[in-house]
Amino acid sequence: MPMRIGDAMPSLEGATTWFNGSLEDTLEHAKGNPVLVHFWAVSCGICKDKMPQLNDIKAKYGALGLKTIAVHMPRYEADTDLDTVNEAIEANKITEPTAVDSLHKLKDAFLNEQGWVPVYYLFDAEGKLKTRAAGEFGIGVLQTALDKMFDTQAVAA
Hints:
The protein has six helices and six strands. It is globular. The N and C termini lie far apart (39 Å). By secondary structure, it is of the alpha/beta class. The relative contact order is 0.24.
């Protein structure tokens, strides 16, 4: 069963590696702010296709206080190569703290039983789940939720 609206943000402990920060930095980074956690994988074509839109969302709402955390969830053995992951982080302009979930502990903590990527989890400033969206149309669902969460009049400027 997937996470439900209102569920608390799961722990980020269990990542095998961090890029662009550490667990401690990430927890401090997110404290008291709305947080978007997005799962992706090097081998995920939809993830690559949607990354420019996600980067636009991060820029737009980051200015309003949204914090973002990326989770690379390897799906295949080839996805576990950290040099390849780092190259993908750079190529896709992923600047936020990025956990590598080689043991799938974060996948399990976020109740992502099917191992969907991309999948987006949006939490409010109190750390409660506001929306979860996956797949090709997840960005659109995420955009709608963010428009509701933030004053869209201020965002439109």
